[in-house]
């Protein structure tokens, strides 16, 4: 019978400060979104704990923000029709040599692309533990581009990918349950999301900034926050606003964000105020200056924008879908509405527009809920999962 390996002889450390992590991402910093900002925060936390991390992802000349950690560029090309995004091509010989030199203890893949598939094969061949983080519901994207027929095919491909990993982390329990129901994997931990309370807080509200956009102090603002792409539910948002207009409900719409669907959205909402991209404290000011956030998207696995609004004491009307379901307490801190139910969305918005007391009560409840989300505690959960997988792999080897 094989003897258990001592820590000194084991290829796997038991201490986070000695851990080497190879992280694969399809978009680490070239376009800013909630997923890659979470990954950068995770890497920053790991580095502060003494771990060594190398990130393998597409690189561009002018990224949206500076990468946290050591970023190694992988071959990629711009996606046709969505050139702001890049498609990773291959685990090239150069990358393989770099991986061999780095000798990671654990491989973390964050999107089911070609390079991540190859990285999983590379790790499995070396009997290294593999963790996959799930950041978005890729299979749902196709319904927004008249390709709903592709959804089950994509889901099957994702299932094959995720079941080759040792474990998954999902941003919310609601998303974890979706993954279990889809039979993606059965070892699923929660890697939630945090909120920067120095940026997102009620005191960031600015009537002066609203006035600079032509919004009166007594006008009730329905806000949209996010990248302007169709999969964020822009059609449902605009159709719901149309309902309010037809009912004579006075309001203003404030759109914060940029993206390829900007012109379409602006044409659908000609009276809306488009504030463009906002970052850092400017973003906190923009969110806190809303009176209600409307988030009809069903593609998020967590809903960073929902949490940010809650931290600013802004009630949320959201689709009852993964992410928001784990954040919003219906009829307590906001409303959860059946996805795509335009009339119900409009009615929930009307109640908030016309009842300042309701906005205040639900906003305060949302802020209280947001206090549960600390970035360090949340990122330690991922580190704990790394170490658990390392222990399991070490025992598996020792028993052979």
Automatic annotation (TrEMBL):
Q: Which InterPro entries does the entry link to? A: Glyco_trans_4-like_N, Glycosyltransferase_grp1
Q: Among its keywords, does the record have Endoplasmic reticulum?
A: no
User: Pfam families this protein is in?
Assistant: Glyco_trans_1_4 (PF13692), Glyco_transf_4 (PF13439)
Q: From the Swiss-Prot or TrEMBL record, what is one GO molecular function term?
A: glycosyltransferase activity
Give the domain of life.
Answer: Bacteria
Task: Show where the Glycosyltransferase subfamily 4-like N-terminal domain sits.
Answer: 33-198
Q: Decide whether keyword Phosphoprotein is in the record.
A: no
UniProt keyword list: Transferase
**Protein name (Swiss-Prot/TrEMBL):** Group 1 glycosyl transferase
